[in-house]
UniProtKB/TrEMBL annotation:
PROSITE patterns documented for this protein: SEMA (PS51004)
Family: Belongs to the plexin family.
Origin species: Callipepla squamata (Scaled quail)
Zinc-finger keyword on record: no
Record-linked InterPro entries: Ig-like_fold (IPR013783), Ig_E-set (IPR014756), IPT_dom (IPR002909), Plexin (IPR031148), Plexin_cytoplasmic_RasGAP_dom (IPR013548), Plexin_repeat (IPR002165), PSI (IPR016201), Rho_GTPase_activation_prot (IPR008936)
Gene Ontology CC terms: plasma membrane; semaphorin receptor complex
Molecular function in Gene Ontology: semaphorin receptor activity
Primary site of residence: membrane
GO biological process, any: regulation of cell migration
PANTHER family attached to this UniProt entry: PLEXIN (PTHR22625), PLEXIN-A1 (PTHR22625:SF35)
Keywords: Cell membrane, Coiled coil, Disulfide bond, Glycoprotein, Membrane, Repeat, Signal, Transmembrane, Transmembrane helix
Listed name of the protein: Sema domain-containing protein
Transmembrane residue ranges: 801-825
Subcellular location: Cell membrane
Length: 955
């Protein structure tokens, strides 16, 4: 095998093609591009390419950036075929790892069949059987693999990500089993009659799936008809007595009920069309084959008619295996806007066992009267409908529904029928030249049943009109060609149609007259155009819409007809023979119109000399001034540009023969945009009528630059600003690096108001107008339009009138709230005072009652003491000494209180403390002092008596 090498070639300004070089001499090409790598989107690549020291990467440089590009990207290929089919000399297929990589990155790549470097070395895998029924489980499968390495470490069989099973390898073959019944269900659920899955071989050594083959699970049971069951791609059987499709023939109840071939399927055969008049009781006989005889317990046959809006079931009788009859019944459908309604027909037995109808045989329900309101329409109906015209009742009906039908019922089959009272409803056209040749279309009713009825019966006044058989529509339309009316001086004439003869009952006269006119023309606009033709012109005159056909020639060449009216004919000029005037000739049917005074002038084709400026931006829309010659001969010129298979156009305005102004077309394309240094379009030119030489202009160096890119005003898109402050819009590509003095013309709108601009390479300085409030900022340049956000402009005054009104209103509202709160507080305080007084009064009453009760209790006590004294026989009450009594009252239960101890300090201060009142007894010290003041003994006793609860604390 010859050695091949890869190389990088900087042949395109935006990408790096990789090619094969040093191919064998017998190869047809000495170099082959195998990959195209984009190093940096939108930037030109310099020719100085450098390999990294390890030769694994290439350094590609643009004017502003260095990009490290790997010399290979093997991992992008996901299969052996894609990997080796790419022809990348660095890549090969690491088989057991199932990955595209370099050879030095593939483990044990030097061992046989571990690493594939040619397509023929890719692993091939087959399996037998290739398909099984979904009802079969754990079926033994035999797999044969080629181009595989030693598999002694073992492999597993994997059905995608559903199941995985062990396998064994014997004699170079791999044996494994299909999934179990429970594992098959999720694989095939909802998948129709088959599910194709990948059967993988998974290496136990690497844990990777390295080979695959398609394996099919088929499901016979989804088929609901015999033909779909047996005509499928899988071995399915139809059980016609059970009406099921199965892969197992043993599932059928009877041997004679098994169907394997489509010829043995029960089915309806095509026969004569079935036509059923509405409301008529009629049996329907159908031809079939292999119709099964219902067994014991099974229901008989039925015919089902699927009429829109309803379904009709009719009992059917099976004569034999080849014939069945739907019994007598009548059928209906709603409405009279359909004369013939095809109805789907089904034959079933045992309730819902449907007999196949492969030809989709239908029954046709029809109404004779529907859409057949005239005799002619009735008699031209399909003879199989058996509809006829009931003369006495003037309606279309069946023979049996026409009273006294023998004398007044007409049918087309009689061969000699013709309808009375023909009528003309429309003429087209209504005018024509006297020279004749106009094809007149006559529309109406009862205009004969066959062409022979009208062959000699059409006249326009006294001028014969010859009917054209190919355009005749029975009973409805006659097209005839009017003869020469020049000898006649008649201006208007009625059209007359006779059906065989011109007796009154068979003659029709048009309600409007046909008018013979003399068309003329007097002017052509525009009067000149390029020699290459293609100019739309209007030829003005009178009666130019007469006749049925018109042709226009200029200088003997046809002018492409577009349309016409009574005063104008529009057409597109052909190429001229030479500059100068060319005669115009108009043919309207047999009339030839000419006017020596009216000529169309051909001029030399326009030329383009210069486009200024020779650049635009991606979005186009910039103003271009085009200079040339004969430009004014083109009324609607356009400029075109093609870039990366996308072609756009834009309009131009002609000022004079040498100058016109165009708006550059956009080249916006999602696949590619011009780089910062600019890029030439694939094509640029002008659409000027049919001037082909200007479609592509090779003499211009027109360049497209990328659109400007602006930063948003703020992360939120909202910027606050005062009116006196300038708005700075930052971005890049604001000034395309074009030669000359022309610059991109920017417009910045704040709301709808433009602002004064100063433009630099990286920013626009906008002197904001005297506005306040919130306004959207819009930047426009040619066809480019962008909004960087919204501007919130605040007023210079501290408070605006709305703010003052708001503050005043807010202050007034606050004052009102304070007044309301004070009033509420005052009312609450008044209520509290009243409540306090009421409680005070209740307390006074309570004290009075308590005092009264105390007096009564004391009186009772005195009485009890007197009684006790009397009982003691003069001994009296056993009073304690004053010291003991006072101690028990003041300190009950305490025998050794500190006040009982003698302290010298108290004698020094006793004189000054002896005047303490009883209400100052708040500490032990004061109690001790009082105790030692003989002058306060009586006060103490009186205090004790006044203490609340004293009586309860008496020992």
């Amino acid at each position: 095998q010859a050695e091949v090498k890869g190389a990088w070639v900087c042949a395109h300004p935006l990408s790096l093609p990789q090619i094969l070089v040093d191919l064998p001499a017998d190869r047809k090409h000495q170099a082959l591009q195998y990959e195209n790598v984009v190093a940096h989107e939108g930037s030109s690549i310099l020719r100085d390419l450098v390999l990294s020291p390890d030769r694994q990467h290439l350094y590609a440089m643009t004017e502003k950036q260095v990009t490290r590009v790997p010399v290979e990207s093997c991992e992008q290929y996901e299969s052996c075929e894609l990997c080796l089919g790419s022809r990348d000399p660095h890549c090969g297929w690491c088989i057991l790892h199932n990955v595209c990589s370099r050879k030095d990155r593939c483990e044990r790549a030097d061992e046989p069949q571990r690493f594939a470097s040619e397509l023929r070395q890719c692993v091939q895998l087959t399996v037998q059987p290739r398909n099984i029924s979904v009802t079969m489980s754990e079926v033994p499968l035999v797999l044969q693999a080629w181009n595989v390495p030693d598999l002694s470490a073992g492999v597993n069989c994997s059905f995608e990500d559903f199941t995985e099973s062990e396998s064994r390898i014997e004699d170079g073959k791999i044996y494994c089993s299909s999934p179990s019944a429970k594992d098959v269900i999720p694989i095939t659920r909802g998948r129709g009659d088959k599910r194709v899955v990948k059967l993988y071989l998974k290496s136990k050594e690497t844990g990777k799936k390295f080979a695959s083959v398609d394996f099919v699970f088929y499901n016979c049971s989804v088929h609901q008809s015999c033909l779909s069951c047996v005509n499928g791609s899988f071995p399915c059987h139809w059980c016609k007595y059970r009406h099921i499709c199965t892969h197992n023939a043993a599932d059928c109840s009877f041997l004679e009920g098994r169907v394997k071939l489509s010829e043995d399927c029960p089915q309806i055969l095509p026969s004569t069309q079935i036509y059923i008049p509405v409301g008529v009781v009629k049996p329907i006989t159908l031809t079939a084959k292999n119709l099964p005889q219902p067994q014991s317990g099974q229901r008989n046959y039925e015919c089902i008619f699927h009429i829109p809006g309803s379904t009709t079931r009719v009992t059917a009788l099976r004569f034999n295996s080849t014939s069945i009859q739907c019994q007598n019944t009548s059928y209906f459908y709603e409405g009279n806007d359909i004369s013939d309604l095809p109805v789907n027909l089904s034959v079933v037995w045992n309730g819902n066992f449907v007999i196949d109808n492969p030809q989709n045989i239908q029954a046709h329900l029809y109404k004779c009267s529907a859409l057949r309101e005239s005799c002619g329409l009735c008699l031209k109906a399909d003879p199989r409908f058996e509809c006829g015209w009931c003369v006495s009742e003037k309606r279309c009906t069946l023979r049996q529904h026409c009273l006294a039908y023998e004398s007044s019922w007409m049918h087309a089959s009689s061969g000699n029928s013709r309808c009375t009272d023909p009528k003309i409803t429309k003429l087209s056209p209504e005018t024509g030249p006297r020279q004749g040749g106009t094809r007149l279309t006559i529309t109406g009713e009862n205009l004969g049943l066959k062409f022979e009825d009208v062959r000699w019966g059409v006249r326009v006044g006294k001028v014969v009109c010859i009917p054209i058989e190919s355009e005749y529509i029975s009973a409805e339309q006659i097209v005839c060609e009017i003869g020469d009316a020049s000898p006649s001086k008649v201006h208007d004439a009625r059209v007359e149609v006779c059906i065989r003869d011109c007796s009154p009952n068979y003659r029709a006269t048009s309600p409007k007259s046909f008018t013979f006119v003399t068309p003329t023309f007097s002017r052509v606009t525009p009067a000149r155009g390029p020699l290459s033709g293609g100019t739309w012109i209007a030829i003005e005159g009178s009666h130019l819409n007469a006749g049925s056909n018109v042709t226009v020639t200029i200088g003997g060449r046809p002018c492409a007809f577009s349309g016409r009216s009574a005063r104008e004919i529009r057409c597109r000029t052909p190429p001229g023979h030479a500059p100068g005037g060319s005669p115009i000739l108009i043919n309207i049917n047999r009339a030839e119109l000419s006017n020596p005074e009216v000529k169309y002038n051909y001029t030399e084709d326009p030329t383009i000399q210069k486009i200024d400026p020779e650049w635009s931006i991606n979005s186009g829309g910039t103003l271009l001034t085009v200079t040339g010659t004969n430009l004014a001969t083109i009324k609607e010129p356009k400029i075109r540009a093609k870039y990366c298979s996308s072609e756009r156009e834009n309009n131009c305005t002609v000022y004079n023969d040498t100058t016109m102004v165009c708006y550059a077309p956009s080249i916006d394309n999602p696949e590619r945009s011009p780089p910062e240094v600019g890029d030439r379009p694939d094509e640029i030119g002008f659409i000027m009528d049919n001037v082909q030489a200007l479609l592509i202009i090779n003499t211009t160096n027109f360049v497209y630059y990328p659109d400007p890119v602006f930063e948003p005003l703020s992360p939120t898109g909202m910027l606050e600003l005062k009116p006196s402050s300038p708005l700075i819009l930052k971005g890049r590509n604001l000034l395309p690096p074009a030669a000359g003095n022309s610059r991109l013309n920017y417009t910045v709108l704040i709301g709808d108001t433009p602002c004064t601009l100063t433009v630099s390479e990286t920013q626009l300085l906008c002197e904001s107008p005297n506005l306040t409030g919130q306004h959207k900022v819009t930047i426009k340049a040619g066809g480019f339009e962008f909004s960087p956000g919204t501007l919130q402009i605040y007023s210079d005054s501290l408070l605006t009138l709305p703010a003052i009104i708001g503050i005043g209103g807010g202050g007034g509202l606050l004052l009102l709230i304070i007044i309301i709160v004070l009033i509420a507080y005052k009312r609450k305080s008044r209520d509290a005072d009243r409540t306090l007084k009421r409680l005070q009064l209740q307390m006074d009453n309570l004290e009075s009652r308590v005092a009264l009760e105390c007096k009564e209790a004391f009186a009772e006590l005195q009485t009890d003491i007197n009684e006790l004294t009397n009982d003691l026989d003069g001994a009296g009450i056993p009073f304690l000494d004053y010291r003991t009594y006072a101690m028990r009252v003041l300190f009950p239960g305490i025998e050794d209180h500190p006040v009982l101890k003698e302290m010298e300090v108290w004698y020094r201060v006793s004189v000054s403390l002896c005047g303490v009142s009883c209400w100052g007894l708040t500490s032990g010290m004061e109690r001790g002092v009082m105790w030692r003041c003989s002058s306060t003994s009586l006060q103490l006793l009186s205090c004790v008596w006044g203490v609340w609860g004293f009586q309860k604390r008496m020992p």
